Amino acid sequence: MILRNYEDELTSLRRKRQADVPLNEAVREGLVAGEPKSALAKRLSKAYGVSRAKVYGLALRTSGGCCGQEKSAASTGT
């Protein structure tokens, strides 16, 4: 019974978080704050109830990186 109440509370908190800040915005905020993509994926996957892979992929697309390589001035020659 206690576990069930805890699960209901977590679901309620996830829904509130999702209503307050969309996942893509939360990813953007984390990246701007300098949070590593892997830590960001772990944290947001728990908060939003989605897979780490989904959040990590979104973080890669948002940051412009692919396969662990981010675009930088050095790599683009600018």
Quick overview:
Helices cover 73% and strands 0% of the residues.
Task: Annotate the secondary structure layout.
Blueprint: H1 2-20, H2 23-32, H3 37-48, H4 52-63, H5 73-76
Written account of the structure:
The structure is a single chain. It contains 5 helices and no strands. The protein is elongated. The longest helix has 19 residues, at 2-20. Helix 2 packs antiparallel against helix 3 (37-48), helix 2 (23-32) packs across helix 4 (52-63) and helix 3 crosses helix 4. The protein has one domain (2-64). The model is unreliable at 68-78 (pLDDT under 50). It has 78 residues and is mostly helical. 13% of the residues are buried.
Keyphrases for this structure?
5 helices; single chain; mainly alpha; 0% strand; 78 residues; elongated; disordered C terminus
Please write the string of helix (H) and strand (E) elements: HHHHH
| Alpha-beta classification | mainly alpha
- For the record, give the distance between the C-alpha atoms at the N and C termini, rounded to a whole number: 60 Å
Choose one word for the global shape.
elongated
Strand percentage lies at under 5%
Averaged pLDDT, please? 79
How many helix segments?
Answer: 5
Number of strands: 0
Largest sheet: none
Rg over alpha carbons: 15 Å
Low-pLDDT parts are 68-78
Indicate the percent of residues in helices: over 70%
Count of domains: 1
